[in-house]
């Protein structure tokens, strides 16, 4: 108003601000967001100017509040976003590193692949073992016929000092291994197998020539044995080489089977660790995505909190002057521009209308409770002796619903829709049914539940984050983030730990959590990550459509389980409200 007076052409006539404010008359409409303004002035032109100046400066002030609110939210969210991005990157690195280390993709498919590989190797191992035993038996038979071991037979021919013969023997041993490996992969007609067999035949011919030569010239060898002895020695040496090659292959196959068995046994523990890392990554990703979405809607939310001004009817001036009759000339025949119903200012933009009955019906959500026109419970309804109508039916519905951990979030899209009242009324109704109930004041910025229940902060450090008794069977918990910020307290699991500790020691049948409105902060969405049951309170004809619609979209995006709607304001003073659920209409 001071800025309006500074721009007024007759500002020197009004030394005090209260004198200038008395020129304006404001009449709000109780049933809507419309107000009527009238202004007095010496001429219709000055009256028009005063009104236009007031609207313009008021709109400028709203824009300043929007920018300030958006800047503060953006600054806070950007800091948290940097931390969330770092946490997500670290979780992703750990997950990828673990998968690469243990080569884990899918538990079932990898287990089947390992079992199949072990079975195949054992079949090959059996075949090679059989070939090894056959070669071993052949060497034993030939050794018995000669009366000598293979080494003794070779020394008898004095071939042990022949380097060429040793080279041929070593190559024959290597070829034996290569032939066995090739036959395990290909048929005997395959070019690679044929090539190895040709090499072996060539070496065998060279070996035979060396044996024949040694048998003819070396002293101590009976010449009568002749070619027959050389053939037996050749066969024994070949069988011995093949036996050694098969023995090496059996050892290799046994080592491979053992390695695969150890890998198969380590699969369950590795998969369990993988599940932990995957869960940590999913949580970090969800927090990061939620913050990213909040960055995008920060500017839009400012409009929901600070609405625009819209002039519905143009101002009209009264031809009859009003004011003190003794000063008509001195005051310049002030005219009072009485707007009445002709100068109506709409504080909410047309794109943010009031929530209607049809808007509620279009959500498709069940209406689990209907409360009469009620902003706050009477004092006598704070205990279970007097249950306000509507809460008993809501308690019956909740008691017949399967809730995860018996925990329920109660929230609303905007403030003033009765979520705290519903929390107290539902708690007392459940208490009257014989249940033990814990109510949690999780609206950290605007704690109202603890004030209604006459809770005073305890000075004893040992009482922090401990439930206090309100009535028999009804306890109150007021979590305190301590030195942590609220967002860090929720995102890092501090709130969840406090809640789990209270549930474990209190053995409550139901835990009701009163949270901030979803359009005024991110706390409720963070809680929905580990508390999936949500009851949404709405007040048609009082609530705004856009925050309500945005809240449903955010809850769906966070995969929250919205059990249904609690409708406040039934039997409103102005109008009846139509409810439609499936094929039933109730007025």
Write structural notes for this entry:
The protein is an alpha/beta fold and 587 residues long. It contains 17 helices and 15 strands. Residues 217-227, 324-350, 458-462 and 572-587 have low confidence and may be disordered. A hairpin with a 2-residue loop joins strand 9 (468-471) and strand 10. It has an eight-stranded mixed β-sheet, sandwiched between helices. The longest helix is centred in the first third of the chain and has 59 residues, at 44-102. It is elongated and about 140 Å long. Helices cover 54% and strands 12% of the residues.
Write a brief structural summary.
The protein is of the alpha/beta class.
Based on secondary structure, the structural category is: alpha/beta
| Main beta sheet | 8 strands, mixed
Using DSSP, what is the number of strands? 15
Could you state the oligomeric state of the chains shown? single chain
Mean pLDDT reading: 76
Number of helices: 17
Stretches where pLDDT is under 50 for at least 5 consecutive residues are 217-227, 324-350, 458-462, 572-587
Query: What is the topology, as strand order, of the major beta sheet?
Result: 6-13-12-7-11-8-10-9
Shape: elongated
Measured distance between first and last alpha carbons = 45 Å
Helix content: 40-55%
User: How much of the residues is beta strand, in percent?
Assistant: 5-15%
């Amino acid at each position: 108003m001071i800025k309006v007076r500074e721009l007024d052409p007759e500002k020197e006539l009004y030394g005090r601000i209260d004198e200038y404010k008395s020129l304006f008359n404001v009449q709000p409409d109780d049933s809507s967001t419309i107000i009527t303004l009238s202004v007095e002035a010496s001429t219709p032109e000055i009256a028009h100017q005063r009104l236009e100046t007031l609207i313009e400066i008021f709109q400028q002030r709203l824009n300043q509040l929007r920018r300030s609110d958006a800047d503060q939210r953006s600054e806070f969210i950007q800091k948290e976003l940097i931390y969330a991005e770092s946490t997500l990157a670290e979780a992703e690195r750990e997950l990828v590193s673990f998968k690469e280390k243990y080569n884990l993709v899918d538990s079932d498919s990898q287990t089947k692949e390992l079992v199949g590989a072990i079975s195949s190797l054992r079949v090959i191992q059996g075949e090679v073992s059989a070939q090894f035993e056959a070669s071993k038996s052949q060497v034993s038979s030939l050794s018995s016929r000669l009366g000598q071991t293979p080494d003794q037979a070779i020394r008898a021919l004095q071939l042990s000092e022949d380097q060429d013969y040793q080279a041929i023997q070593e190559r024959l041993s290597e070829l034996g291994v290569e032939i066995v490996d090739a036959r395990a992969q290909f048929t005997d007609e395959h070019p690679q197998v044929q090539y190895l067999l040709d090499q072996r035949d060539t070496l065998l011919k060279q070996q035979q020539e060396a044996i024949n030569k040694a048998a003819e010239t070396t002293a101590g060898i009976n010449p009568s044995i002749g070619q027959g002895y050389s053939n037996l020695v050749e066969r024994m040496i070949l069988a011995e080489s093949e036996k050694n090659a098969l023995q090496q292959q059996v050892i290799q196959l046994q080592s491979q089977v053992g390695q695969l068995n150890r890998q198969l046994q380590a699969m369950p523990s590795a998969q369990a660790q993988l599940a932990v890392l995957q869960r940590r990554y999913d949580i970090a990703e969800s927090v990061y995505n939620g913050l990213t979405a909040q960055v995008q809607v920060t500017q839009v939310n400012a409009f929901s909190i600070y609405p625009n001004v819209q002039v519905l009817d143009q101002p009209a001036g009264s031809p009859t002057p009003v004011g003190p009759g003794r000063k008509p000339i001195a005051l310049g025949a002030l005219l009072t521009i009485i707007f009445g119903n002709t100068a109506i200012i709409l504080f909410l933009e047309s794109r943010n209308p009031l929530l209607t009955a049809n808007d509620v019906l279009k959500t498709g959500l069940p209406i689990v409770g209907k409360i009469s026109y009620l902003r706050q419970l009477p004092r006598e309804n704070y205990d279970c002796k007097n249950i306000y109508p509507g809460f008993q039916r809501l308690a019956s519905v909740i008691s017949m619903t399967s809730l995860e951990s018996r925990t329920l979030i109660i929230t609303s899209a905007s403030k003033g829709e009765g979520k705290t009242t519903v929390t107290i009324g539902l708690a007392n109704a459940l208490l009257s049914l014989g249940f033990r109930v814990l109510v949690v004041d999780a609206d950290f910025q605007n704690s109202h539940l603890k004030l209604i229940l006459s809770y005073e902060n305890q000075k004893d450090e040992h009482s922090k984050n401990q439930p206090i008794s309100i009535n028999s069977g009804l306890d109150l918990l007021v979590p305190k983030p301590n030195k942590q910020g609220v967002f860090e307290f929720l995102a890092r699991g501090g709130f969840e730990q406090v809640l789990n500790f209270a549930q474990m020691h209190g053995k409550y049948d139901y835990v009701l959590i009163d949270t901030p409105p979803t359009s005024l902060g991110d706390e409720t969405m963070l809680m929905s990550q580990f508390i999936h049951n949500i009851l949404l309170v709405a007040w048609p004809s009082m609530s705004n459509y856009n925050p309500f619609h945005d809240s449903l979209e955010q809850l769906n995006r966070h995969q929250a389980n919205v059990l249904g709607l609690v409708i406040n304001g039934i039997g409103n003073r102005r109008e009846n409200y139509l409810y439609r659920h499936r094929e039933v209409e109730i007025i």
